[in-house]
Amino acid sequence: MPRTRRLLGSGGYNAELLAHIVGGRGRVVTVDLDPYVVQRTGRLCAEAGNSRVTAVLGDGGRGAPAHVPAGGLDGIVITHTATDIAPAWRDQLAEGGRLVVPLQIGGHTRSVTLVRGGDTLHAEHWTYCGFVRDRGAAARTAPMVRLADGAVTVRWENGVLGAYGPAGPEPARRFAACVRTWDRDVRTSGYPAMSVHPAGTPDDRLPPGDVLEKPASRLVLDWPGRGARVTGPDAPAETVVAGQST
Ligand SMILES: C[S@@+](CC[C@H](N)C(=O)[O-])C[C@H]1O[C@@H](n2cnc3c(N)ncnc32)[C@H](O)[C@@H]1O
User: Fold this and answer.
1) Is 146 contained in some domain?
2) Are residues 13 and 103 in the same domain?
3) pLDDT tens for the 246 residues of the chain, in order
4) Is residue 10 domain-shared with residue 97, that is, in the same domain?
5) Is 147 part of any domain?
């Protein structure tokens, strides 16, 4: 079966490595929005490569529609940080195909391997990573504000916001208790089950879990241990439900 892989973010090196892996069975299409990078990639791959790499200029958020084989791509690798899952990545993947993406959630980036099943992507593997930011139409910058003449910068995303001022200590104390509980009872269980659904998917079609809204998708994260009722030893006066205090 012919296999095609696609790499977004196009220095050419990764593309040639992938072309080596797919061998004579397939091709690699690599997309970058920087004309200089695309031109240089095309030249270097022609000089040193195996002629199975095509360098394309464009915003990777739209994928590479002109290069998708019948039945879809068997793999997509994103080599810049993404804050959302572009619908084109899912739609251009074959059923069962894999999308590897450095996904930023709540300020943290993890490289996630997602497997397509219909219009849903299911997380198969997670690992730590750091990557350059998206520069395309889907690029997002976390809101920031400078305090104390620039000595402190506060930033927030996905609804998580620092609390300051005279009433600040109480929410900070509760938040710290939640973090301790989370560390002790949930985090050691590993990563959550995560699935990615198109924006607009009705609630009753989502699996159980915490829903994180993104512009193009709804992420559902189901932490093992989430909701377990535990008493924090350093906060005996309160019962903490993993992720929230009561
Ligand atoms: C870390 S480099 C990729 C290096 C490459 N994988 C290699 O083998 O050398 C990240 C690249 O992503 C590109 N990039 C960032 N946002 C993009 C987007 N939305 N669409 C396409 N390319 C993008 C940048 O122009 C940059 O060339």
Assistant:
1) no
2) yes
3) 445 555 555 678 888 988 888 888 789 999 999 999 999 999 998 888 888 899 999 999 999 999 999 999 999 999 999 999 999 999 999 999 999 999 998 778 899 999 999 999 999 999 988 888 888 888 877 666 666 776 666 666 554 555 555 665 676 677 778 778 777 777 766 788 999 999 999 999 999 999 999 999 999 999 877 766 545 445 444 444 444 333
4) yes
5) no
For CA atoms 2, 70, 88, 202, the dihedral sign is negative
16 plus 63 within the same structural domain:
yes
Pocket of ligand 1 (CB under 6 A): 8-14, 31-34, 37, 59-61, 79-80, 132, 134-136
Calpha distance 204→84 (Å, rounded): 22
Statement to judge: residues 16 and 102 lie in one domain: yes
Mutation pick for ligand 1 pocket among 34, 84, 89, 140 (CB with most ligand atoms within 8 Å): 34
DSSP 82: B
Q: Domain span at residue 172? A: 158-245
Residues 12 and 99 in one domain: yes
How close is the Cα of 135 to the center of ligand 1, in Å?
8
* 31 close to 99: Cβ distance less than 8 angstroms: no
Ligand 1, residues 6, 32, 41, 134: which to mutate, most atoms within 8 A of Cβ? 32
List all residues 6 or more positions away from 109 whose beta carbon is below 8 Å from its beta carbon. 81, 102, 103, 128, 129, 130, 131
